[in-house]
Amino acid sequence: MSKNYFYLILLLNILVTSTHLSAEPFIVLQYNNVSELSDRSNEFAQNPDYSDKHMILPGESLNVIIERYYNGSGLNTSFLQLAIVSLNKHAFRNKNINYMIADEIIHLPSINQISKLMKGIKFELDDHYQHPQNNIYYFGG
Length: 141
Prior knowledge:
By secondary structure, the chain is an alpha+beta fold. Helix content is 38%, strand content 10%. The strands form two sheets. A two-stranded antiparallel sheet has the order 1-3. The protein has a two-stranded antiparallel sheet with strand order 2-4. It is rod-shaped. The termini are far apart.
């Protein structure tokens, strides 16, 4: 008898609990398609298709270039280095950021181009580069 009484209380408890659960408020969250980077002042962050070009000057380092163009974008510097070197093999000896070639024009990728690069999706850059000189400058220790 006590066993049946226990099951009856358990059944009533389940019925009462399910009634309370269905009475919970239903919340609808609004989705806006705004990037978390879009409120930043940097052009690369505001427009995911924005890209730029830069001619490497003697004495410049890749970190200086990244700071100049991507400052305030919220993008990771190490990841930007990898993306820039991958897209501009002509401007780096042995894919090494410390061996940049002066007077080369490099492509600074947009957020969408970086995303495609990360996913392995092929895309075309706007211009083909000419290699005017072979000046190699070494930065690093």
